[in-house]
């Protein structure tokens, strides 16, 4: 079967995502559309507004044939590591083409495959230049931007766009494999990632979330499929976990916080000091902001604290669980083809050691309200015979 | 100055406590009544229904001259260790007489001083007998009861009463010092510890709490002084911390829970298993109950988990902070006399290393509602010039 892979968060699944899945299928003439989707905690360090099952369900009713969960250890990560996990899934499944959205106007402006290869070839030089040009007060992504601009002056690199950064990371990661996937970038239409008004036909996930969290659910009705609209009952946001986070930070010894993944440079001391003085999560993030720490990096770090993800917990790609959240008939047929190459998890048992961190994270995710159902034990993949509403 | 010492929790301070303080003063003809009082977490493993300052204030307006805080490491303990901490305070302050309430009808039935001495003399024999008669399924206090009955058959030991058990522990601990305090036991009048109706003039703290938590505040008006009645605004109970406790248990690794003070025998595994299945704190305690674990022991253990008090955190008596919660004129005069022998803390600074655990515990205590004021930093002792309302 001819396959196309997407790397997604669907927070929540909206018309733009539906368009993206359709286009991906059309452009590649694929038989099956496979999405690797973050679970209940997301790349930019925040909980998903609705749970992974509801998001997968909307996708399966709107053009996606198979949804696989990107586990929290890879999902809540900066672009490079996020790409490592998601590309690994697609490579392991032998996907032919990777399609992703880009904010660059002309679709042909960047040859991502060539870029990926070049980075691999020049890796040593790039690393050396990176070390030499390092500045104390700059965050990692600002520094990498300068490095790439130096090595690829002809490319229209727009590092203010998170999607573009992710695209480059996918390209680089993909080029490391023996048989890289073909890469196609599709322009995001009608709405830029950061755009916050809902005037047009398509709206960004950011704009949709902001309206939802402001209680203006009716405003987004025309921008999401029915499956999403009806599932928007118990919305989750960071503020729901603020008291748990505060409790954790106040009750932990500083030495315990030092064990948290990516906690360093004395950030644990600042965190314990600042959290006493703020009333909510938004204030906390603002208080912690410095030049070196982007908002996303701070939120990711706070997610690791909330979930008690420790330095030693980093998992290797080879241990990643292939957790199936759902499939259509086409998706099922594809899985059948792969059953000898990949060991898939369709039901979580109590001894699933490679899913420990996901299970822990989801148990905490559920604490936002008492209306979120069990996320793992006993849950079987969603099966939608038709992938349209 | 002639002094009398009390060991108390005042949860909350009621007419019986007022009577007890008056009687203690009368019987000993003391110039000053000193109370060592548990802070915000109590001997039986529960949060205080109102904070330590409000309880100290009511005491200072009703017959007590000086309130010193028994820190959480000693307060949330079984009788023996609770007695170690509280007797140490009174001994260090050179108190002449210890007065405590007893549930035994005749005040003269037990010679506590003699009992204390005898236990010290026979300690080796007692320990040996204890080891020999040990039964796997019995809790510590049941076993100790059998041991004491064996060695002191003539004494009317009633081990079903927590107050009586504490009295014996005080007597034993007191006898270890070079100059033991004189001991006077006063019968608790009008109400037994476990009694739960409010029909009489005096009511037990248990009955008062039950009415308060059931929303029947008016019912207790005649059983508490005004200072207590007016302070009963933001009531605190274990259920207020259940979600924090659940979060802690679910997010911690089992190996982290193993580090909690007094956590052993695989209790951490049972705890992680049971907490998934219960809806509230009361259910959890019931699910964890076994023959070996009394309710109080379970609640204490869960308090250590909530407060993240670890095995290594046990403090020595010599490091105990002498934290003054409040005084009257008489109390102040007494403190002046002692200023060369004891280093008193009247204001907590940010580097108070021997109060770390108290500060941590109180920060968590405050999380029950957002209406509990800061408990430590910057708080100065209450001063009531008159010790009557």
Describe the 3D structure:
2 copies of one chain form a homodimer. Helices cover about 45% and strands about 10% of the residues of chain A. The model of chain A has no long low-confidence stretch (mean pLDDT about 90). Chain A is globular, with a radius of gyration of 20 Å. In chain A, strands 1, 2, 3, 4, 5, 6, 7 and 8 form an 8-stranded mixed beta sheet that branches. In chain A, strand 2, helix 2 and strand 3 (about 65-70) form a beta-alpha-beta unit. Chain A has 2 domains: about 5-235 and about 315-385, Rossmann fold (3-Layer(aba) Sandwich), CATH 3.40.50; about 240-315, no CATH class. The first copy, chain A, is built from 17 helices and 8 strands. By secondary structure, chain A is α/β, with parallel strands linked by helices. Chain A has helices at about 15-30, 50-60, 70-75, 80-90, 110-120, 125-135, 140-150, 160-175, 205-215, 225-230, 240-250, 255, 265-275, 280-290, 295-305, 330-340, 355-365, and strands at about 5-10, 30-40, 65-70, 95-100, 180-185, 320-325, 345, 380-385. In chain A, helix 4 packs across helix 8. Chains A and B meet through helix 11 and helix 17 of A and helix 11 and helix 17 of B.
Q: Uncertain regions of chain A: pLDDT < 50 for 5+ in a row?
A: none
CATH architecture name of the largest domain in chain A: 3-Layer(aba) Sandwich
What is the subunit organization of this protein? homodimer
What structural class should be given to the helix and strand makeup of chain A?
Answer: alpha/beta
Helical amount among residues of chain A, as a percent range?
40-55%
| Amino- and carboxy-terminal Cα gap of chain A | 24 Å
Q: Count of helices of chain A?
A: 17
Specify the CATH class of the largest domain in chain A: Alpha Beta
Secondary structure tally: strands of chain A: 8
Return Rg of chain A in Å.
20 Å
């Amino acid at each position: 079967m001819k396959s196309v892979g997407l790397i997604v968060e669907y927070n929540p699944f909206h018309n733009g995502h539906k368009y993206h899945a359709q286009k991906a299928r059309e452009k590649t003439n694929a038989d099956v559309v496979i999405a690797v989707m973050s679970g209940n905690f997301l790349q930019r360090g925040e909980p998903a507004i609705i749970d992974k099952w509801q998001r997968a369900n909307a996708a399966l009713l709107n053009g996606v044939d198979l949804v696989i969960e990107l586990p929290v250890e890879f999902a809540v990560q900066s672009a490079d590591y996020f790409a490592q996990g998601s590309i690994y899934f697609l490579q392991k499944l032998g996907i032919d083409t990777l399609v992703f959205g880009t904010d660059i106007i002309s679709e042909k402006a960047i040859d991502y495959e060539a870029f990926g290869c070049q980075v691999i070839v020049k890796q040593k030089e790039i690393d050396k230049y990176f070390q030499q040009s390092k500045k104390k007060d700059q965050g990692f992504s600002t520094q990498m931007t300068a490095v790439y601009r130096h090595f690829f002056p002809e490319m229209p690199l727009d590092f203010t766009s998170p999607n573009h950064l992710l695209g480059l990371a996918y390209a680089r990661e993909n080029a490391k494999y023996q048989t890289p996937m073909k890469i196609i970038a599709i322009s995001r239409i009608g709405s830029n990632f950061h755009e916050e008004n809902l005037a047009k036909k398509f709206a960004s996930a950011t704009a949709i979330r902001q309206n939802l969290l402001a209680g203006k659910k009716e405003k987004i009705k025309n921008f999401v499929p029915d499956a999403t609209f009806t599932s928007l009952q118990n919305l989750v946001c960071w503020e729901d976990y603020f008291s748990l986070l505060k409790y954790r930070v106040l009750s932990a010894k500083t030495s315990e916080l030092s064990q948290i993944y990516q906690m360093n440079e004395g950030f644990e001391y600042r965190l314990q000091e600042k959290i006493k003085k703020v009333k909510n999560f938004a204030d906390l993030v603002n208080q912690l902001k410095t030049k070196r720490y982007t908002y996303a990096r701070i939120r990711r770090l706070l997610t690791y604290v909330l979930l008690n993800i420790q330095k030693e917990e980093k998992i290797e790609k080879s241990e990643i669980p292939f957790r199936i959240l759902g499939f259509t008939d086409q998706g099922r047929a594809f899985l059948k083809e792969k059953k000898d190459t990949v060991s898939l998890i369709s039901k979580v048992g109590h001894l699933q050691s490679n899913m420990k961190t996901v299970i822990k994270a989801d148990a905490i995710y559920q604490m936002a309200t008492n209306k979120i159902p069990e996320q793992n034990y006993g849950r079987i993949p969603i099966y939608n015979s038709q992938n349209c509403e």
